[in-house]
Fold each of these.
Amino acid sequence: ANLEGLVNLLHRASEKSGKEDSQQAEILAMVNKSIARFKTTINDLTDISRIQRNVPEDIEQINIAAIYQDVVEELSTLIEQKQAKLSFRDLATGKIQFSKAYFKSILYNLISNAIKYAHPERQPEVEIVLRNDGDDIKLTVKDNGLGIPAGKRSKVFEMFKRMHTHVEGTGIGLYIVKRIVENAGGKIFLESEPEKGSEFTVIFIKK
């Protein structure tokens, strides 16, 4: 926060004096971008620390459709930028007792990844489906993106691992998802085919 404040002060001072040239403006923009990445990493590490230490206290019967709409609103800029097509179906007849914040984190990470790693030659399509799986509930998030090579799939859920380096990110979103799911007694699986897309499956244990 201090670094960000000082850079903004420098930028305003340069503008006020009329001495900021294009090179200075470019450098300041690069510094601000680095600070933004640093803040994201700090926030992600804070999330990891919280997930590893605590059991969430906000366990309740959640409104999945409402949480999905919140995620879509937060991702609206990315969805518009990529012209992504999303479909959501809730076919589950049971209810999930879960942390609203953690369920939102799962949806957000899976959907945002599906859009970010879109195939450059086709419109991104993401299908989100909830259905019953015996006594439990299964969530699938399927995309038509770049897919993940077989040799890299085992590392997808590791901390700081990124399967495609051309997309910005800290590489901990899927690690967080796996920790949330497993801490709640659930399971997460991945099926993927390079150049065709990926499908993440989460099993929620009904309580």
Amino acid sequence: MQSIARNCAFTPNNPEKIKLSSMLKFLLNRGLMLTALAFVLLTPLGLYAQSKVVSGTVKSGPNEFVPGASVMEKGTSNGTVTDVDGKFSINVKENAVLVISFIGMAPKEIAVANQTTLDITLDADITQLSEVVVIGYGEVERKDLTTSVSSINSKQLKDIPINSAAQALSGRLAGVQVTTSEGSPNAQVQIRVRGGGSITQDNTPLYVVDGVQVENALSVLSPQDIESIDVLKDASATAIYGARGANGVVIIVTKGGRKMKPLVSYNGLVGFRQLANKLEVMNPYDFVMYQYERSRGNTAAENTFRDSYGNFSDLELYKGVPNVDWQEESFGRTAVMQTHNVSVAGGTTGTQYNVSVSSNKEEGIQIGSDFDRKLVNVRLDQKITGFLKA
């Protein structure tokens, strides 16, 4: 022990031992400083960077999960995506805000707060939807359309003051001939899409309303209930309907409900019709004198005139005959027309509805051609499962 003590003694006579002792003290002091620095740096992380695991599901409706939806912690690159069942799990800060997004749906921000399980429902973003055209049993974006199709939508129909949907098409569909058989308010309207030739002995096009074939559909639908009308003219587009589509196909989509609170709408118009141009007619005396002058020089015509109007000496009697303008009597009235339409639309994610009641009343310009029609249109869309809809 005394020998060891003498060898380890720090004496001025042992310079190497003094040097080694100074180095040990330096390293010891440096180690304490690094330890203290590490403790200072790690302490805030342990106090302020607390995190937790948040899990949940992303849906677009009841029992409709959204796979592949993006779940991101706002302001960071920390994120994940949902699995095939719409489920996700992510490690975030206590006060984090999650941003959930998916193509075609409006993004949503959710504050985590003290929640650990989230049930998120995304709504469709209608601002991202493109205008589509119904082609047979499917739809295609208008920019990708290659077949010959004429279309008219509800925005164009609402500004037309008429009671018949068929009359609304007149002059508004390129390549489609719309002809009214007569001038009465309830006159049948003939629509010709592909000319007068037909393999079915009938030139009437096929009408498809919301996927259902309906005969003379434009006569039983109010213009206020129509969302869009697409007329298929190409053989390639009409071929899926077989021989029935040989004269063209008129596809009508009626207005349906949406996911919203019940919305009551009213659409009405009041107007009048008059005969645009009346022919100038003679009074009875002028008419008989004209017939007298044209019959002169022809024995047969003179005899016919005498049998119808009498001798020349009797013509003065016609000056006292009242003048009756039969144009005025038959077509001279001011015919008042009015339309009133009340609709209620709304629905939930699984059920949408649109109920519409229309009253179309018009006094025809011709006496006895009045038109009065009441229409009730009900559209109910029910989502039964994720892939079945009625």
Amino acid sequence: MVGWLRAPLSRARTVIPYGRQEVTDDDCAAVLEVLKSDYLTQGEVVPAFERAVADRVGASFGVACNSATSALHIACMALDLGPGDSLWTVPVSFVASANCALYCGATVDFVDVDENSGALCLASLESKLLQAENDRKLPKILVVVHLAGHPYNVAKLRALCEPRGVHIVEDASHAIGAERYSDAVGSCSDSVVTVFSFHPVKIVTSAEGGVATTNDEVLARRMGELRTHGVTKDNAHFSKPSHGPWYYEQQALGFNYRLSELHAALGVSQLSRLDNYVGRRAEIAGYYLQNLKGCTLVLPDEGTRSSWHLAIVLLPADRKSAKQSVFEKLRREGIGVNVHYIPIHTQPYYLGLGFKQGDYPNSESFYERAISLPLYPTMTDCDLDRCVTAVNSVL
């Protein structure tokens, strides 16, 4: 199936992309205000963005970074993941969910998913944990992914992981604004850290950016230092007496993962429209659910509020061989479909680490059937009708 992701988009009709940001006059004004201020970096707007995100999800602390990938990395570092340790995640995700372990010198392993939802399979995790416990090779971290913005039941993971000393990190890159029984994703009620993405195709955007939320003050402080070269200016944590008001200490090997004031200003402005965006996304998903024929829309669990980052549909199992043809026909119709995701363990780099095709059959089956349809708040009813008509016609 090499090359099918590069199927050309229609030039005859306006293309409806699978995702698109909305930037308003208020957003532009917020960024312009920072441009005219004294600080483009390390001012007051980044902390304001951190507080706004933490307050929105009910967490004690927020740590902003230049991307969700960076936030995942420093979360793992703050949890002391390193050589000799392992991190588990799911194959159906973007590669960053696994790469964060390799950045720390740790190893990666995967837990297969439910083939109809793409979400981590709880039975597979329980079996794998029991085997790892017997082998004395338990992971230090489990990264659970809220695929498509559908909230995972992290409380069930906690029941399995906490007694074994496994830290849960939520990759909620898709899920700002999502809730499970009124508990917001990001509250960290059952995890140690949650990471959000503010990439342009996500629910709200800061152009590029990520925020890690936590209720652990020590973790928050460590992540804050690690995203700034491992440097602290807090004299309460100095290892020796300060030389003066200019004094700082590098106490760890960190990185320059800081978010700029410009990005934070855009993020703060966009966050004010989060509920409107999530509501419109749900309306679009509902229209798909009612009108699509010949495929199945991947749905959230009952009792949850999805942020609906993606509208993933699954082709019938007996039609999966037609996926390339379906994808290409929709692209030619100007429907900017995409695929989420190529299983991480099948990527060439991970094959080089010893993984192989067939290791996680449910993940591979999900990938063979999955196509992501356009879904973003500024889609018009006409756009939506075009998408549904094209999908039903092709199928």
Amino acid sequence: MVPPRSLGEVVLALVRSAAVRDEIARADHTARFAVSGNEVIAALGATRPRALILDGEHADTRALLSRFESVALDQTLVIVVSRDATKDPIPGAHVLVAEGSLRAVIAAVTQQQSVPALDFTRMLAISVLEGQLDQALERVADQVAECFGLERCVISVRGDSTGGAASGSHTWDSFAWTTTAERCRAASLSRATLIAPASDDGCESYLAVPLDSPLGTYGFVGLVAERVFVFTPAQQAALVAVAARLATELSWRTIHQRTSEELDRLGNAPGHDLLLAMWNRMAMAELANMHVSGSKRSTLPLAAAIVDVLDLQGINMRNGLEIGDRLLRRIADAVRATIRAEDVVGRWAGDKIAIILHGTAIEGAQRVAERLRAAFDARPLDLPTGGALALPVTVGIAALGPNEDAISLMNRAVYAAKQARDGGIAISRASTGPAPRISQPLEIGDELRAMVGGAYRLQHEISRGGMGVVYRAEDLALERPVALKMLRPDLAEDQAFVEQLRVEAA
């Protein structure tokens, strides 16, 4: 045992590995080595060492960590060192360290570390409810990293990786993600800081907590510091709070998605869209399959056009649902007045109208799209408050390709309409070949055609916020438009909140 200057200034260690012992001795010449767990308890009862290092392979380590619940360790940092900190992490420590990073950790804990201030104001605004899930997770990962003043935040939902640096410059390859995910999972299981070597001969520090909700665990959210850094209890508590809210919102999104899919399956069949007096999505999908099959048998060309209504949610919010409905009907009327009797028209989504152009090649579809644009421009919608609202649409067109099915044809037309919108142009042709793969090409709710309660048919999303999502719906019993709010599940379980909502609705 190396004679200490003062036990309160030394590193106290209980190690089995000679390599770990030598590493500690080289890093801190005041290290004191104990030979048993009882000696460690006695030393801790007498004074407080700067750090307590426990060898993960020592027989007394697990028992010691369980005994520390009854021993005050406010002044002592408990470090467990192992060859691979991700394998079978031992709970109860403050820090888990891989052997290769031990000397750097000892050097760092002897100094006062600089802890970034937590940005609680920005944390309150973090949410995954807006937009497509993968994009929402990427945005939230950057926001969490910035709120904690650290280099990276990593969010994993059911094994998928999403994360980034606050600067947006970090990218994943499969090896980097696998390594990071393993370390974050180990940190999440142990509820401790995990420090391991980095690829640039430095060290990285990890803190992670599970995304737990009453409906199950969705993965984890983790923080990464690109240096030796011991996360504080305040940072861990803040990360737990952020993860709890994200898990609740992920639960809500999951319930919403499953419910809408089930309602769509049970409550819909091919038929007419009552608002626009045209075929609904289910009918259009079947009709598209029939026309594609007929085109292949007859060798006649076939094209599809998608009329995409821009910012329908914003129009509803600014002008009211009645104006939004009138706008959709005006666009539908213009489409029917422009196309031929043999062409098929129907609602493809809440803000999209599809047209199947029988016997028409891409050049013919281009001419149809130009006539549609002229019809839209000639029919602005008069507003009750004065002025007129131009019909805000883009048109995407696609021609049936060899060996292409109906859904692929329609998706290419949808993607072309999106390219027109993003490019600020009126009409866009789809490229040949399949449309680029999109994980979620439409927003949640964009394709809802479900029946709710047997009386309300969902049309499209109006808005969403912290309490839930509001949909434009049709009351089929009373033949009137309604706004239907779907609450988050945690709020739906709050009896006081539900009663307050009932009173407001009444």
